[in-house]
Here is the input.
Amino acid sequence: MARPLPEILPVPWPADQPAPPARTDEAVVRAAQLLADGGLVAIPTETVYGLAANALDADAIDRIFAAKGRPAGNPLIVHVADIAMARALTPNWPTAAERITSCLWPGPVTVIVPRSPRIPDAVTAGGPTMALRCPEHPLARRLIARLGKPLAAPSANRSMQLSPTTAGHVLDSLGNRVDLILDGGPCGRGIESTVVDCTTDPPRILRPGPIGRVELEAALGGPVLDQVTAAANDASAPVRSPGQLARHYAPKTPLELASAAAERVATLLQSGKRVAWLTAATADPQVRQLAASRDVVVVPMPADPAAFAASLYATLHAVDRRSLDAIIVDTPPDTDAWRAVADRLRRAATS
Here is the structure.
């Protein structure tokens, strides 16, 4: 007999209230009990929705990998309620991790530190390090505190597919593979956290995200190597961070990055294809001309990188439902502010 679909519990928490409404706290209590019993709960964070399980429960961790269809070599991020919980999970808390977390936690930045023996092998892909993050979203932190244990929480979707930024995205992707969904509304940041390896000197960015190199260097008081200048990982060593797969964060509809997007869209239309075009240049005469075709859907995108990131996955989810032949996206500017968006788009476009 098939498992039923999970219940979706709304968990509103107005920003001007120090404590959540009673119904929200009741949902947190219920979710914490499910997690304590080895269940899987989809939770809102400021980045994307996470598929959460007790990070110290090896059986629950195995359920995450099965639900997502996630490769065993792709490690998970462990979410903590505060810096004290993070320090308790590692035999050696690096100075770089202290500086970053003191300045930027709670927030969308993950630090790589030496692994605790308490953490199951599957969480770290068998490696000697682990990834830790304290989410900015107050509900996620309240749930961790209520459970009293850290949560492993990769994105709440099938492996390599688009990350979810709403509860509906979670349900569409995972269905009855999850036990409960907490609906906190759309995620504010919209893309996954920055990941920084704090076991190297200087630290290096393994995955770009909402926190850029400039902010990291200000927190560190020194340099951080970015993804481009950092030396490549040893191919035989365990992967230290999620988000390293060549193809990731991908819609089902083929996606292309195009520096000459108008020409590429025109070519596809001439060959009888139906196309979505994500562009910030909606006032451009070429865009207006091509938009007149019934075979192209022009989707206006923000010119600001943070706003673009916040809307990216939700836009791709919506476009992916339209049974089109291709998604064309203007190539982002080659600047630090756009690095995370460019990374996600590049991986989504890899075949």
